[in-house]
Amino acid sequence: MSKIHDMVIIGAGLSGVGAACRYRTEFPDGDLAVVEARDAIGGTWDLFRYPGIRSDSDMLTLGYDFRPWIGDKILADGTSIRNYVEETADEYGVTPMIQFGQKVIAADFSTADNLWTLTLKDQKSGKTRQIKTRFITSCAGYYKYEQGHTPEFEGRNDFKGDIIHPQHWPEGYDYTGKHVTVIGSGATAVTLVPAMAKTAAHVVMLQRSPSYIASIPSQDHLGNFMRRVLPARWAFKLNKAKNMTLFRTLYKRARKNPEKTREWFRKKTLKALGKDYPVDIHFKPDYDPWDQRVCMVPDEDLFAAIREDRASIVTDHIDRFTEDGILLKSGDKIKTDIIVTATGLSVIFVGEIEATIDGETIDIPGSYGYKGMMFSGVPNMISVFGYTNASWTLRADLISRYMVRLIRHMKEGGYVRVTPTAPEGMPKNPWIDFQAGYLMRVIDDLPKQGDRMPWLNVQDYKHDIQHMIKAPIDDGALRFESDVTVQEAAE
C-alpha cells in the first residue's frame, strides 16, 4: 500500500511555510508533505525580482507571529523577505519536507476511503505521479505564477523597444539612461517608478485612472526604540498591537467617512507635490478609499521622484503602441525606450487544480465559503486567502491556527471527515467586497458568501480572532463523520 500523508500543504511561500510550521509544532509526529511547483521557497518573494520589490504591508504583521521579524524597516525588500521565509522553514524543520518542482494538477476525494489523491506533475520531466493524504491545506496563492495579466494593446508588435511584465523581469536588465513608461497605478507601479527613476533618463507612470497613495516612514522610530529598551518578545507584541490598531482604526475611519478621507489624501498629496500640481487629475480616484487597496510608499519616494523631475504621471487611455512609444486617446504621444506593463495579476483559485469528489467535478463557484477558508460540500480541505485591507499573513496565520485546532478536534473525536454544510436557500453574494480589477475579472469564478456567519468572508482581524480562534470548532455548520458513521451512511 502506498504511503498516506496526514497533511499535504500546497505551496511553500509565506503562507505555506507558516502553515507547515504551525502543523509541525502542534503535530511533530504527523506525516506532513509540502508540495511546491517551483524550485525554491518563498512564493511571491522568490518569483518577483523587479526593481524596488518590497512589501506593501508593515513587516511586524506580514511576518510570522511565532517568529517575529527583527529588521528595522517597516516595508522590507523582497530579498530580505525571501531570506526570512527560508530561514523560518529551516528553523522549524520544514525544508526537508518540501517536494520541489511538483505542481498539483488534480485532486480527487474518495468518500469510500476518506482520502485525497493528488496528481503531481514534475515541472522538468512532465511526468505525473500520485500521492494520498487525509487532509489538504492549499496555500497556492491567488494568482497564476506562469503569466501576469496583460491587456491586448494594439500595435504591440510595432514597438521597437522592450516590453516587460514585472512578473517576468529579466535578470540583470539594464535601463540606465533609458526613457521608461510604466503602465499601471497599483502597488507594483508605485514601487517600480521611483526605483527605476534612480538611474533611468526619465520614468512616466501612465495610468488609466488614479489610485490612493500614502507615504509612510521607512523606519518605525518608536517601535525601534521599544525594541532597544524592552525584552524582545514584549517589544514585538506591543509594536505589532500598535501597528494593527493604527491601521485598523484608519481603515474603519476611511470606510465610515470616505469624503473626509478623500480630502485628507488630497491635502497630503498637495503638501508633498506643491499647491500647483494637478492633484485632481493624477491623484483623485473615482472610488472611495479602501474600495481598492491603498498603495503605500516609503519616505515619499514616489513624490520625491516627481518633484525632482525624474518621474512624471500621465493620466489617459492608450490608443495603440507605435514604433517609438505610445499614442494616447487624447492624441498625445509618449516617446519611450522601454514599456513596463504593471497591469496586474491573473487571478486563479486553489492553484487551478482540477478538484473532484469520487470523480465528479466540484462546483467551487456554486459553493459557499465557510469563514472564507473552506467550501460547502468539500471535505477535508482548507484554502488560505489573506486580507485585502491589511497584511496577508495576519489572516493566513489565523487560518493556519484554525487548521491545527480543526485537526486536533478530529483526532480527539475519532473523525475522518469534516464537511461544511450550508443551509438550504441561503442567498449567494460575491466572495468578497473589494473592487480591485484583478478580483473583479474573476469574481464569478469564486465561491460565494452567504448572509450570516459562518458563511461570511469578513475582512476584519478582530472578528476573525473571535470566529477562528475562540469560537467552538463544532458550530453546527461542519458535519463531522467517523469511520462508523461513514460506513452506516454507505449501508
Outline the secondary-structure elements:
Layout: E1 4-5, E2 7-10, H1 14-26, E3 32-35, H2 44-47, H3 59-62, H4 78-91, E4 98-99, E5 102-110, E6 115-122, E7 128-133, E8 136-138, E9 162-164, E10 179-183, H5 187-196, E11 202-207, E12 213-216, H6 221-229, H7 232-256, H8 258-273, H9 279-282, E13 295-298, H10 301-307, E14 311-315, E15 318-322, E16 325-328, E17 333-335, E18 338-341, E19 354-357, E20 360-361, E21 369-370, E22 374-375, E23 381-383, H11 392-413, E24 415-420, H12 437-440, H13 461-470, E25 478-482, H14 483-490
Helix pairs in contact: 1-4, 1-11, 5-10, 6-7, 7-8, 11-13
Account of the 3D structure:
With 491 residues, the chain is an alpha/beta fold. It folds into two domains: 4-146 and 346-490, FAD/NAD(P)-binding domain (3-Layer(bba) Sandwich), CATH 3.50.50.60; 156-341, no CATH class. Helices cover 31% and strands 21% of the residues. The protein contains 14 helices and 25 strands. It has helices spanning 14-26, 44-47, 59-62, 78-91, 187-196, 221-229, 232-256, 258-273, 279-282, 301-307, 392-413, 437-440, 461-470, 483-490; strands spanning 4-5, 7-10, 32-35, 98-99, 102-110, 115-122, 128-133, 136-138, 162-164, 179-183, 202-207, 213-216, 295-298, 311-315, 318-322, 325-328, 333-335, 338-341, 354-357, 360-361, 369-370, 374-375, 381-383, 415-420, 478-482. It has a six-stranded mixed sheet, with no helix packed on it. The chain has a five-stranded parallel sheet with strand order 4-3-2-8-23, with helices on one face. β2, α1 (14-26) and β3 form a beta-alpha-beta unit. α11 runs parallel beside α13. The protein is globular. The chain starts with a strand and ends with a helix. The mean pLDDT is 91.
